[in-house]
Structure formats: C-alpha cells, structure tokens
Amino acid sequence: MLTPLIDQYEKELHLLEESTELSEEAILQVFLVRDRIQKLLSDKTDVSADILLDLFKLDSRLKKQANRINQKAQLVTWRSSLEIPVNYWWWFLKPESHRFDKNDWLWNSLTIASLTASLSLVVDISTRFLGGGVGFGSALGTIFPSVLTLFTAGGVLTATGKIVIEKLLSKMLIPAYFLAEAKLVISLLLVGFLVAIKVGLPSIAENWYIQPAYQDYKNDDWDSAISKYEKAISLDPDNAQAHNQLGFIYEQLQDLEKARSEYKLAVQGKILIAYNRLARLYLLEKKPNEAISLLYILESLIEKTKNDKNSDKSLLQYQFYKNLGWTRFQQGNTEDDKKMIRSAKRRYQEAKTSLNNAISNSGLPENEQEGTADCLMAQVLEKLKETETSKKYWNLCLDANKRLPEVDGWKFIARERLTTNKGEK
Fold first, then answer.
1. Residue 295 near residue 357, CB atoms below 8 Å
2. How would DSSP label each residue in 67-128?
3. Domain that holds residue 153
4. Same domain, 321 and 369
5. pLDDT confidence bin for 283, thresholds 50/70/90
6. 267: Cβ–Cβ under 8 A, 6 or more apart, which residues?
C-alpha cells in the first residue's frame, strides 16, 4: 500500500517541479498524497529502509520548492481551514532565507521604533489641534493623521497587511525578501509626513487662524478673534505676535490679569510693542519700578533696530517716551515730600524731557495720536510750578484717546483745571 503512494508522490512532485506556472491544485495534490503517506507511517517498524530512504529523498526535493510554493499558495489560510497537525511539516513550509533577510531583525526593530515615533507625533499633533476648542479644522487635523497612522500600523504589523504589501511588491516586480525593508520604508514615510505636519503647524496657525482673527478683531467680533488666537497659540505656542494681539484684546476688555500674562509671553518673543503695553499695565497699577525695567530693555532693542524701516516705529517710540515720562512722573510722586523734594524735581524734569520727545514725534499717524502724553505733560508742568504752560496741554488732553481708561480721569482733571482758570480770570 505504501509503495504505490510513494510512486504517486514522486509523480506529483515531478509535475510540480517541471511546471513553469505553478498552480494551487498541483501543490494540493502533492500535500494530500503526502498526508496519506504520513498516516501509513504510524508504525515505522513495518516499513522497509529502502522505502524510507526514497521518502527522505522526495521530501528533500519538496523542501527545495518552498519558495515557489509560498509565492503561490496561502498556506496560513489552508492550515486554518483544514486544522492541519503541527507534525505535517509540508503544510508549514517556509521559504529559504535570502542573504538580505539576515538583517530583517534590524529593519523590523527600526520599523517598530518608527511606528512608536509616529504614535508620539500623532498624540502631539492631535492635542494641539484639539486645544483652544473643536471645529472642522481641528477635527480634520486630528482624524486624518490618526487614521493614516492606524492604517499604516495595521499594514505593517498584521498578517493581512503583510499579504497586501507582498502583493504590492509583486506588482512592482520587487522580490519578496525585501518585505522587511518595504515595511521600514512605509513606516519612515509616515514619520516624515507627520514631521512635515508638525513643522507646518506655525504656518497653519498663521494662515488658518491668526490672519482671520485679526480681521474678526477689526470687524469688532472679539469673541471669534479670541477663539482663533487661542487656537493659533495651541498650534504654535511660541507665536509671540498671537500672544501680543490676544493680550491687547484682553486689555480692551479690562481683563488685565489675562492681558498681562499674554504680554509677558509676547515679551519673551521680543515683540517690541508688547514691552510698552506691559509697562503701561504696571503704570496703571502704580508700579513704576517694574515698568522702568521693561523700558530699559526696550530702549536697547529700539537702538538695535534704529536702521530698520518700520511703519510702526513712530508709534513705538511715542509710546516708549510717553511711558518713560509717565514712569518718571510716578517716581517723582513717591519722592514728593520735604526731605526728597530735590530728587522729586529731578524726576519731573526727566519726565518733561521724555514727554517732549513723545509729543514732538512728527512721524506718528494722525489716527494714532493718543494725546496721553499731553495729559501727562500737563500734570508734570503743574508739579514743576509751570502753571501757565500747563494750560496748553490740558486743552490738548481733552482730545486724548477715549478708549484708554486712564484718559477719562485725566480729562476730568483737565476740565476742572480749565474751568478754575476761567473762573479766576
């Protein structure tokens, strides 16, 4: 009974070896015959040595066809469907190792490392997009990289993904022994794509949120502007200009605590106007020493950029000299007693000089004429006992910018002074 099966085994194996285009039917015919032989080998004592030697030779020939069989047959699927025992080794044939497969452990390790890096990048990118509120852009920026990463990980790590990649390699005429390298390339492409997204976050923040936020601010839609600036900062925390603009909106909403926090972040990014704005908040709290520290730094930064052509430079210098004069005025007030009257007068003289520099700034656009320097100059001149000259500046103070909260109090003083002077006449 065994001898005819050995002969059939040899016949089917020969057909398999000689076929130019291997078929699944030919493979199954060989395997099934080998199954029947295996069942008859349960009692090896009844089998002659010659038959076993013939069988060993045929099995050796079958093993040499492992590469062709694996390229054609889905052995994993076949084993699963038929519940093949582990000792039926022909159903578990593996292709011979190629010299390029020797480093597969390295490529597989690098693939896992790349996927881990991709997961870390996805978490970071998703967190940034979800910060500052959820919208269509946030959802798109979160879902797309996440789905792409999961799809890539599934393709690289799962058996189904392996089959898909192998088919792609086959269509591209790339040998199967480059499978590990192909997985690594795919995972590296994913990392590169995610890195490109992360590097592009500042650009996304600028074009998607900061520019539209500025338009919302100009259109008096401050809630929308705040939301967009917060989203931009979530995407690009180091965007000092966004912090500066957000602080300016908070200041106008009289949320000075939030404004101060945003200005401090803008100052770290060397936004020059933020130094003036933060110094002004300290002056509103009557903290001239904190303000002067900022103004000294601003003065050195202005000196470094004095040759730059900047349309905002006139406004920057106006506010700098105005704030410097205001600081000296407050310092003089703290020293205005009998023991320190001389020191106070020196502070008022310094304040007068700085305010003159601000007022004489001819390059300031008309719509940016705050008038605050005039209000401060009037107060300084009164301290210096130059009452007649102060009248001119009290009149100018009446035209000061109404949006600034400190101006309202100064205008009230101006009207009092001018009314009293008229009464005296």
1. no
2. HHHHHH--HHHHHHHHT--TT-GGGG--PPPPGGGGGHHHHHHHHHHHHHHHHHHHHHHHHH
3. 100-199
4. yes
5. very high
6. 274, 275, 278, 294
Q: Which of 164, 179, 199 is the last residue of a domain?
A: 199
Task: Give the per-residue pLDDT at 369.
Answer: 59
For residues 287 and 420, state if they share a domain. Answer: yes
On whether both 75 and 120 belong to a single domain, the answer is no
Amino acid at site 230 = E
Radius of gyration of the chain, Cα coordinates, nearest whole angstrom: 41
DSSP 209: I
Helix (H, G, I), strand (E, B) or coil at 308: coil
**Look-up of token digits 């979160």:** 142
Q: pTM, whole model, 2 decimals?
A: 0.67
Dist CA 162 CA 169 (whole Å): 10
Give Cα separations from 151 to 119, 171, 384 (angstroms).
Answer: 12, 21, 77
Render pLDDT for 28-82 as a digit per residue (tens, 0 to 9): 999 999 999 998 887 666 788 888 899 999 999 999 888 888 888 888 888 888 8
Q: Is the pLDDT of residue 367 over 90?
A: no
The count of other CB atoms within 10 Å of the CB of residue 26 is: 20
Residue 307: strand, helix, or coil: coil
In this structure, are residues 167 and 98 in contact, taking their beta carbons and an 8 Å threshold? no
Same domain? 65 vs 21: yes
Q: Which amino acid makes up residue 208?
A: W
Question: Are 292 and 414 contained in the same domain?
Answer: yes
Distance CA 180, CA 371 (A): 72
* 259/286 Cα distance (integer angstroms): 17
Question: How far apart are the C-alpha atoms of 149 and 232, rounded to whole Å?
Answer: 24
Helix (H) or strand (E) holding 205: none
Q: Return the exposure string of 119-157: e unless at least 16 CB atoms fall within 10 Å of the residue's CB, then b.
A: eebbeebbebbeebeeeeebeebbeebeebbeebbebbe
**Contact between residue 295 and residue 326 where contact means Cβ atoms under 8 Å apart:** no
- Which of 199, 220, 236 is the last residue in one of the domains? 199
List Cβ neighbours of 372 (8 Å cut-off, separation of 6 or more).
Answer: 322, 326, 400, 401, 404, 406, 407, 410
Q: Do 29 and 12 touch, CB atoms closer than 8 A?
A: yes
CB 201 within 8 A of CB 126: no
